[in-house]
Design goal:
Elements lengths: L3 E2 H7 L5 H9 L3 E3 L2 E2 L6 E2 L6 E3 L2 E2 L7 E6 L21 H4 L3 E2 L8 E7 L2 H8 L7 E8 L4 H9 L13 E6 L3 E8 L6 H8 L3 E10 L2 E2 L9 E3 L2 H10 L2
Parallel strand pairs: 9-13
Antiparallel strand pairs: 1-4, 2-3, 2-5, 5-6, 7-9, 7-15, 8-9, 10-12, 10-13, 11-12, 13-14
Bound molecules: uracil.
Length: 240
């Protein structure tokens, strides 16, 4: 377990900027293992030491795994000059510590995993692992069995790249069709570009699954929760 500066730990947990945290320490409000702290730069082991601010114990957890139902209009990043980001939707104690696992376009909704577990993140995103990403999409135009076949063969995108075979399932075929699409890669705008290559336009896109992790449909767009132990175990099983 890692030793870290107390002021950094507290700032990451949402107790304010490092400067504000130093003030808390100066006021004698911060205790470590029951003793008031004098030096904000004191090193602590957050998982082991009993840290409290004004009597409130810190519930520190080393690893954070959050499922977010990403709403449209926010960016899958930790910082952006113009738009709100997915971490802006989270409480500070998590926002300061997690990264999104992969990206969804600004107008795409649905399942986004946020974590500080770099190894898991790396494994889920590694092209070698071919982790399935499943999307629900609404498409302007009638999606036909021919399109299903084309997806299964792999589709040549606008830049000449040929995608791996993908699964297209038609849920309803009408002026606006509904489909589920499963891909095992994560090229830029991949789903939209696959349909564009067939002359079809995606008008709504929502990720509903990543590997074994299924979007909890009780989460409205913008809502989040921690993964359950079972979800995490399933994801790590994928982590070969
Ligand atoms: N494919 C896209 O086109 N957009 C996304 O956000 C995800 C997959």
């Amino acid at each position: 377990m890692k030793r870290e500066r107390l002021d950094k730990v507290l700032a990451n947990m949402g107790w304010g900027t490092r400067k504000e945290v130093k003030q808390l320490v100066k006021q004698g409000l911060v205790t470590v293992n029951g003793n008031a702290v004098a030096d904000p730069g004191q090193h602590v082991i957050p998982e082991q030491d009993d840290i409290a601010v004004d009597g409130h114990p810190l519930a520190y957890r080393r690893w954070i795994y959050i499922m977010l139902n990403k709403p449209s209009g926010v960016i899958s990043a930790t910082e952006d000059n113009r738009h709100r980001t997915v971490v802006d939707l989270l409480p500070l104690e998590w926002a300061n510590r997690v990264h999104p696992v992969g990206r969804l376009d600004i107008d795409t909704e649905g399942l986004l995993l946020l974590t500080n577990d770099g190894q898991l993140s790396h494994n889920l995103l590694s092209p070698k692992k071919k982790v399935e990403k499943e999307y629900y999409a609404r498409i302007a135009g009638i999606v036909q069995p021919e399109h299903v076949r084309r997806f299964a063969e792999g589709i040549t995108l606008d830049d000449g790249y040929v995608t791996l075979p993908a699964k297209l399932e038609i849920l309803s075929a009408a002026a606006v069709s509904e489909v589920n699409v499963t891909i095992t890669e994560g090229k830029f705008h991949q789903v939209k570009r696959m349909f564009a290559a067939l002359g079809l336009k995606v008008v709504y896109l929502k990720r509903i699954r990543m590997g074994p992790l299924v979007l909890d449909e009780t989460l409205v767009p913008g809502a989040y929760r921690e993964l359950t132990d079972a979800e995490l175990a399933a994801l790590k099983g994928e982590d070969r």
